[in-house]
Amino acid sequence: MTGNLTTHFTALIPGILGGRFVPFLGAGVNLLERPKDLKWTINCGSLPSGKELFEFLAEKYRYPSAFDFDLARLTQYISWVAGERMLFDELNRIFEGAYRPGPVHRFFARLPKLLKRENKEYKLLILTTNYDNMMERAFQEAGEAYDVISYISNGPDKGKFLHEIDQKKVKVIEKINKYHDVDLKTRSIILKMHGSVKGNPDFTESYVITVDDYLEYLMNANINLLLPSELVEKWYSSHFLFLGYALKDWNLQAILHRIWGTQKIKTKSFAVQAKPDKVDKVIWEKRDVDIIQSDLKKYVSKLESAIKNTP
After folding, report:
1. Rounded to the nearest 5°, which phi and psi values hold at 289?
2. What's the CA gap between 172 and 175, in Å, rounded?
3. What is the pLDDT of residue 22?
4. Among 200, 300, 289, CA closest to 252
5. Most buried of the four, 74, 120, 215, 246, by CB within 10 Å?
6. How far apart are CA 154 and CA 157, in angstroms?
7. What whole-number distance in Å separates Cα of residue 129 and Cα of residue 217?
8. In angstroms, rounded to a whole number, what is the distance separating the alpha carbons of residues 277 and 254?
9. Cα–Cα dist 182/37, whole Å
10. Closest alpha carbon to 29 in 264, 249, 272
């Protein structure tokens, strides 16, 4: 674990400049500019934390169990007693709000132009387990071209990925060895590993959120065989930068297991956490991920400055 950002940036920035860099965004990136005294409600203009989402759904559906803040267990209960459609409608109502991108989203939306060198296009592969569309909005505000690839958790194409191309055309990724519509040279890609709120009229929402969803995802969603090789090769050869995560999150553990199994991440990678707990330290260490102890908003600001000052 380190708090020395200068040393850390010396290790990270060459990978960023060389295109071997994959940021991985968790729910914490959505909470950075919330007023500290804000009491979350569905129309407050801010996305909820995991705890707030749990409390809202548990109260609405009169959850009979103790508040253990196990969101997967709660949403499983709701899908059984009220139906998956009701659960999805509630999640849509929460995640479709007119939210503003935060400092992390805006930083990555600016990054392609910041790194453009000698008229060469620099595009990003951004992974996330978030369902919201804040990253998409940040790219739109920055005038950056992007695609969205999201996991399909329900319906006839369940277990596959959906590709939204340049906000225009939507295709299910079928045979990856014959799929040629991924183009990281012209458009950045937001890869939504656990589905997404509905963002395009041509496809529906998809959420990996219940216990059954996670179990099926872990057993059947072999990500390396479901996504085009350009994406798989990029993340296996890149630094990962985990932002807004704690390792006790179900969603992150499911993803890490699907990509790497029990192996360590093969490239030097980093997780930014303001107050890492002892369990996080041990688990990140087992994955060969260095913890960078820093406030997240301060971190992206300093990283941007360091990139600008790099020859």
Report:
1. -110, 125
2. 9
3. 93
4. 289
5. 74
6. 7
7. 13
8. 20
9. 43
10. 272
> Mean pLDDT across the stretch 63-91?
90
What integer pLDDT is reported at residue 280 of this predicted model? 78
Question: Is residue 189 very low, low, confident or very high in pLDDT (cuts 50, 70, 90)?
Answer: very high
User: How, if at all, do strands 195-196 and 125-128 pair?
Assistant: unpaired
pLDDT value at 254 more than 80:
no
Helix (H) or strand (E) holding 100, with range, is none
Provide the b/e sequence for 53-76 (b: ≥16 CB within 10 Å). bbbbbbeebebeeeeeeebbebbb
pTM: 0.92
pLDDT: is 263 or 6 the higher one? 6
Topology of the domain comprising 5-33+100-308: Rossmann fold (3.40.50)
What pLDDT, in 10s, does the model give residues 215-243? Answer: 888 777 677 778 888 888 888 888 889 99
CB 220 within 8 A of CB 153: no
* DSSP element (H, E) containing 58: helix 50-60
Rounded mean pLDDT of 149-160?
88
> Residue type for 72, please?
A
Q: In what helix (H) or strand (E) does residue 89 lie, and over which residues does it extend?
A: helix 84-95
End-to-end CA separation in angstroms for the chain: 27
